[in-house]
Specification:
This protein has 300 residues and is mainly α. The protein has one domain.
């Protein structure tokens, strides 16, 4: 397979991953309605993902430098524990629309951080402009004509930390992806995510109820979150970051808003408004503009 086809495949895989991640909100909602806390859901899905990755990569592996081990620890902390805990906590204390909008700044934050940390991904003017266009589209979809931003300093701050942690995770993955197999890196991410999540249960004790796992809805959704949305999607996402870079990969996060309105239309029978359509067009235009501009600059 040629380089062009490999990059095209990477873009397709990124979009498919985003579609799956957009659907995870439904699975999480079902599990919460069945009595599981957000932190418990995280723990169970991470444990399942770690077990699956051991099956896919049944080798201990070896980290050659202590610094690399520290980086892997930070990937688990930023891409797993901090990202999920801050986002889930923010949803509980501020408007969901605020969280959705602020968390979607992750691609823009990735581009800004990459400019100073990754020599291979300098910030281009068109990339910045495309991100602003896409973020405007997200704004239209999230607020849907009701342009009232109710500030909640603590909740909005946690949302920003969530976006920043994902940006840092992406940068760290890009930096270390050339040193170790992606399956090994992804498994290590979940190992450190589990390890750094455990202290949370001192604050919020974990209530173990085996009977819950006998419910088909609980079992199915946990397996979906653990096997598909976590082990498979994180592996694919990390692989795509290695192939096309952290900035270009994270630009697809803007698509989550489009997935949300599509799911809302098909599952919840919600009406798609003109604002949603306009927002979707801006997102598609912004991502295309940012990615296409980077591609053409490289070819000059």
């Amino acid at each position: 397979m040629g380089m062009g086809k490999k990059k095209t495949l990477s873009h397709i895989l990124a979009i498919l991953t985003i579609i799956i991640w957009g659907i995870t909100l439904i699975s999480t909602k079902v599990l919460i309605l069945n009595g599981l806390s957000p932190a418990a859901i995280m723990l169970y899905r991470f444990v399942i993902a770690y077990a699956v990755l051991w099956i896919l990569y049944p080798h201990w592996g070896k980290v050659t430098r202590l610094k690399d081990e520290g980086i892997l620890l930070l990937t688990g902390l930023s891409g797993g524990t901090i990202y999920f805990l801050t986002e889930n906590t923010a949803v509980g204390i501020t408007n969901t629309s605020n969280v959705a909008l602020i968390v979607t700044t992750a691609p823009l934050l990735t581009a800004l951080i990459a400019n100073f940390t990754l020599k291979s991904e300098p910030l281009k003017r068109n990339t910045l402009f495309g991100s602003v266009i896409a973020l405007t589209g997200v704004f239209l979809i999230v607020f849907n004509g009701n342009f009232v931003l109710e500030l909640n300093p603590w909740g909005d701050f946690l949302s920003f930390i969530s976006a920043l942690s994902w940006a840092l995770y992406s940068i760290l993955i890009k930096g270390i992806s050339s040193k170790y197999p992606i399956l090994f890196i992804t498994r290590r991410v979940f190992f450190y995510s589990i390890l750094t999540l455990l202290p949370w249960f001192i604050y919020e004790p974990l209530h173990w109820e085996p009977a819950l796992f006998l419910k088909p809805a609980v079992l199915f959704n946990l397996l979906f979150l653990g096997v598909i949305a976590s082990s498979l999607c994180f592996f694919v996402w990390n692989m795509v970051i290695k192939k096309i870079g952290a900035v270009r990969t994270n630009n697809y996060i803007y698509f989550i808003s489009i997935v949300t309105i599509a799911v809302s239309r098909s599952v919840l029978d919600e009406k798609i408004t003109g604002y949603a359509i306009g927002g979707a067009i801006l997102i598609l235009s912004g991502v295309y503009f940012a990615d296409h501009s980077r591609h053409t600059v490289k070819q000059k």
